[in-house]
Amino acid sequence: MNAITNNATNITSRGIRTLLLGDNNLHDDGVNAIAYALETNQLLESLMLDDNCIGARGLTALANSLRKNYKLERLHLKHNSFQSLAPLITCLFNKRSLDDVVDSNHSMKHIFLDCGYSYESRELEVLLKINRLGRKEARRAKVALYLEEDLGRLFELDIDARLCPDVVGILAQSGSLNGVFGVVKNLPSAIFSRCESSDGCDLRIEDCMEVEYL
After folding, report:
1. Which of 3, 29, 105, 207 is 20 to 30 Å from the Cα of 160, by its Cα?
2. Nearest CA to 89 among 73, 67, 74, 116?
3. What pTM was computed for the model?
4. What is the distance between the alpha carbons of residues 96 and 119, in angstroms, rounded to a whole number?
């Protein structure tokens, strides 16, 4: 394990696209070293970490590193010690804020796990299917999901009123009709209110009300 952890950065920076590290007794400390290397590596596409006694701490470190990694698409994590998939779910869809949603991982397409995680496993698979749409489309779909959970978030955003139709476009393309209808119902008054309260706003009333939703 020491040879692997001491040279983790070198291992993931030599043009290698598939790295097999299964059954290497890495534990959390070893995975921490791999996670640190993954933050800057944009070459590796597949990583196998089966049978390595990875616990909650190691999984969290790995998930945090994947928020900065845009290349890894396949991750093997069978037969390890962690009991929850929450770090992976948060990595793929961090709903703390809209910025965090945008900065989530939209590149990971397949995570191979043991059976038995029930609901968490199904939630993770939904997010992986979204990622398989491609990074741009996955990001738009997650933004739509985030806004649809609470449409009030849209009107709390500190964005120029003229950008609201673009946000609605994301909902129209990636969200549900209910989400679009909810925004259409409330958006004009929100835009009009912002125009009246903003000093120097050069938007005319007709501009505020004539919105291309779809």
Report:
1. 105
2. 67
3. 0.74
4. 21
User: Could you say which residues of the chain have pLDDT below 50?
Assistant: 188-198, 200-214
Please name the helix (run of DSSP H) or strand (run of DSSP E) that holds residue 125, with its range, or none: helix 118-131
Q: What is the DSSP string of 22-82?
A: TTS--HHHHHHHHHHHHTT--S--EEE--SS---HHHHHHHHHHHTS-SS--EEE--S-S-
Residues in contact with 46: Cβ distance below 8 Å, sequence separation at least 6, in sequence order: 17, 18, 19, 72, 73, 74, 75, 76
pLDDT, tens digit (0-9, with 9 covering 90-100), for 76-97: 999 999 999 999 999 999 999 8
DSSP assignment of 74-90 equals EEE--S-S----HHHHH
Quick check: 194 and 207 in contact, CB under 8 A? no
